[in-house]
Amino acid sequence: MIRARIIGTGSYLPAEVVTNASLAARVDTSDEWIVERTGIRQRHIAAPGEFTSDLGAAAARRALANAGITAGDVDLIIVATATPDQTFPACATVIQHKLGMVHGVAFDVAAVCSGFLYALSVADAMLTGASSVYRTALVIGAETFSRLLDWDDRATCVLFGDGAGAVVLRAETATGTSADRGILACRLHSDGRYNDLLFVDGGPGSTGTTGKLRMKGKEVFRHAVTNLANVMTETLAAARLTAADVTWVVPHQANRRILEGTAKKLGLPIERVVITVDSHANTSAASVPLALDTAVADGRIQPGDVLVLEAMGGGFTWGAAAVRW
Ligand code: UT7
Known about the structure:
Layout: E1 2-12, E2 16-19, H1 20-24, H2 31-38, E3 42-45, H3 52-67, E4 76-80, H4 91-98, E5 105-109, H5 115-128, E6 136-144, H6 154-157, E7 162-173, E8 182-190, E9 198-200, E10 213-215, H7 217-238, E11 248-251, H8 256-266, H9 277-280, H10 287-297, E12 306-313, E13 317-324
Parallel strand pairs: 4-5, 4-6, 11-12
Antiparallel strand pairs: 1-7, 2-3, 6-7, 8-13, 9-10, 12-13
The structure holds oxa(dethia)-CoA (UT7).
């Protein structure tokens, strides 16, 4: 059988760092509240004129270099984003152009904070399907969420940041057992009943404006821990693994308390969870590949390790992937 293996990772963070203290000078909040309730200490914010496609292309270039290949080897680009440069064309085709590619297929997926898991799952299916014509994919999560924030709303503006992460996936022959390296299983869910708990109050087809992010944080939090623990267990079972087999959880970085609650439900020590929310905040679709690249670059993730990637976001959408490194 064919499996999709991650052969390279890369990420990019804009240069400007905004601390909790500098937000406290703008809205009625404090470093103490933000750290205690979320674990966030700082976030990166894109410069004026720096777009999601710039962040995504930079992360993609680093992932290609890490994989030891060039854009010429890539035949599929999938970008997860809720903050494309323009309503259309897809951010993926903009990145394709920035990478100098005039071949292949590029498109976006929209699943907000779960977008990278959705994009990974689609790429996995396109690389490993019986009639697949694709061999090497770039899967990118890239966001400039700072542009969707209401900077006067302390309940949301302290939570998010900008950034991008990318992986290179390659189709490889495998045995079909959980000892294979690569993506072992993906599981996705969505439930539109919860659209009004986390949304943007505008859009090209309704207001004709971009809109601003609105969230009922407490209610999102309640759903997050349960949904994430359930989908991780479901995905591990599909890969014929259990939580005891997991070397690293690579989660969406929304709130440190969600990471702790989910790990506890699975019976995993928090030391097994890759945590970047303190320095990146919530970068939506970029957060999982940013955390993955961080733990690959610092040597925590090693060949043979079992990873569970997970995320939940607006929609609601949520999902997980079990990967052997
Ligand atoms: O990525 C998509 C998924 N998103 C998430 O997973 C987000 C999930 N939700 C959360 O992470 C948390 O619910 C928040 C961090 C958003 C909020 O934490 P919380 O512990 O649920 O706080 P809360 O909303 O219940 O607010 C508690 C208090 C309120 O004051 P009162 O009503 O008790 O007087 C808020 O007005 O904290 C107040 N508050 C703040 N205070 C200082 C809300 N935001 C702030 C703030 N600084 N930035």
